[in-house]
């Protein structure tokens, strides 16, 4: 069933509220505010160093907020206000919310000593507490979805880069995430392998209601799968538009210059 088009009334799944991220004296994100609604696919574009990947790493708790708040389904994620003070949430509360979030990285990060099947069932069994039988059944469904049903018993070293990335996508989906984060998932691939991975992601976008937050330099892919595209520069959103507008009639000169350089 195709994904439904989010509306203004759809509840936000991810909310950034006055988010600041600094590394030393360098401000990467500067009082950032935006929302991603349920079922929405939002792509972040912009020059390297503009803060796009940092956003994904904050949602994955791989980086700590300097200031501000992130909410997942309206619930404070890593920080909350308590007795008038901004305080960290308990690790077990953060971990509970984090199970709703999956991420596919630039690098595949598969366990080399495990088979494809073992890589996919590891987290569902040990983190979600699924039975091995249930996890295996779901893993085989997902391998079929990503076109690798015949690679169940293969080890990562026997797979191409594109195949490894498709396994990584299946592994993320095996956690049944509400939110899927995609960080330049084709940047480590040889050019001839990019299409097979983007094809899998298009299929997922068209046939699920998973909320997606995407960082990519593949502008054609961004045009095809996104409901919204956000243009970043120096830690701020400078333009937020539907793909049909962003890629044909951007309003900001910085956006126009960037797209002219990459298209």
TrEMBL record:
<dbReference type="InterPro" id="IPR027417">
    <property type="entry name" value="P-loop_NTPase"/>
</dbReference>
<dbReference type="InterPro" id="IPR030679">
    <property type="entry name" value="ABC_ATPase_HisP-typ"/>
</dbReference>
<protein>
    <submittedName>
        <fullName>Ectoine/hydroxyectoine ABC transporter ATP-binding protein EhuA</fullName>
    </submittedName>
</protein>
<dbReference type="GO" id="GO:0005524">
    <property type="term" value="F:ATP binding"/>
</dbReference>
<keyword id="KW-0067">ATP-binding</keyword>
<keyword id="KW-0813">Transport</keyword>
<keyword id="KW-0472">Membrane</keyword>
<keyword id="KW-0029">Amino-acid transport</keyword>
<dbReference type="InterPro" id="IPR014343">
    <property type="entry name" value="Ectoine_EhuA"/>
</dbReference>
<dbReference type="InterPro" id="IPR003439">
    <property type="entry name" value="ABC_transporter-like_ATP-bd"/>
</dbReference>
<comment type="similarity">
    <text>Belongs to the ABC transporter superfamily.</text>
</comment>
<feature type="domain" description="ABC transporter">
    <location>
        <begin position="14"/>
        <end position="259"/>
    </location>
</feature>
<dbReference type="Pfam" id="PF00005">
    <property type="entry name" value="ABC_tran"/>
</dbReference>
<dbReference type="InterPro" id="IPR003593">
    <property type="entry name" value="AAA+_ATPase"/>
</dbReference>
<dbReference type="InterPro" id="IPR017871">
    <property type="entry name" value="ABC_transporter-like_CS"/>
</dbReference>
<keyword id="KW-0547">Nucleotide-binding</keyword>
<dbReference type="InterPro" id="IPR050086">
    <property type="entry name" value="MetN_ABC_transporter-like"/>
</dbReference>
<keyword id="KW-1003">Cell membrane</keyword>
